Amino acid sequence: MKNSKSLIALSFFTIYIVWGSTYLFNKIAVTALPAFFMASVRFFTAGFLIMIIAKIMKLNLRVTKKQLINCFVSGFFFLVYGNGVFVWALKYLDTGFAALLASTQPLFVLILLRLIDRKPMQKQSIIGIGLGLVGMYLLVSQQSITASEGSLLGIFMVLTCVLSWAYGGVFVSKADLPKNFFITTGYQMLFAGILLLLMSLTFKETMISPLEWSQKVQLSMVVLVIFGSIIAFTAFNFLLKVVSTEKVSTSTYVNPIVAMLLGWYFLDEVLTTQSIIASIVLLSGVYFITSRKRIAKVAAEESIKP
Q: Is 70 exceeded by the pLDDT of residue 10?
């Protein structure tokens, strides 16, 4: 039980900090590479490496047809649309701004749970949604942002990505997936890599050899593949099975802080006063939503006891 709690804590640290930094590395990579091509390389490479590691560890790669289909579906919502399209939208938005938009995920999760499971909304949830909407309005109504070319399109697409990711979280929490979280991640990423490559070919993106990438882009891709994909996404899949979906979504109000600080320090992104106020209001709303008492899932925790 003690080891289980330590593993859960380490997994939360991973999705909080590592995923917060991926906004920076995605921005660096997508400024030099076509978005869908870049995401395809990232996820297919990560999925291929996971399968090699799993083979070395002699893990069972066999899954049922239903599990394979569920890996395909969840991989689409999380990685193809939720991440691939999101990275494309980063061409038009600052990393901190995009991360703040992504922090609205718990609002979408709450609404989806209300629609799908008919779960009643508590008072804290209603307050949280209200604060979230006010914060979002303050964030996207800034003239300096809406006036820039492609920003409105970027904002709209990011919000659809957040909806896709939120639905993926709800789907995975109920779906029949491979018992080993590492194998689940591997199949999701292989499927995503193939789909994103097809999208890249469909949009006639230019394929650029890794040997022609700058050192900064190469480093970014290594970080995205090893830490942002293999390690963080495995931790994410693990958490979705052992704690509530709402608790896992708390990463969305830590990630923006990490993303904003890194974007400001490394990319000279501007933090306006209105953005800071909007982030405080928005993240306060997220806090109200995610602080509601929920029963954590303990069934999966039993399976990881030593």
A: yes
Dihedral, CA of residue 219, residue 225, residue 226 and residue 229, to nearest 10? 140
The total number of residues shown for the chain amounts to 306
User: 200 burial class (0-12, 13-18, 19+ CB within 10 angstroms)?
Assistant: buried
**Dihedral in degrees, nearest 10, Cα atoms 108, 114, 116, 119:** 140
User: For the chain, what is the mean pLDDT?
Assistant: 86
Place of tokens 């091509």: 37
Give the pLDDT mean for 160-170.
91
Per-domain residue ranges of the chain: 2-302
Answer whether 218's CB lies under 8 Å from 79's CB. no
* Amino acid letter for position 48: F
List Cβ<8 Å contacts ≥24 apart for 29-34.
29/87, 29/217, 29/220, 29/221, 29/224, 30/87, 30/88, 30/90, 30/91, 31/91, 32/213, 32/214, 32/217, 33/208, 33/213, 33/217, 34/200, 34/203, 34/205, 34/206, 34/208
More confident residue, 300 or 281: 281
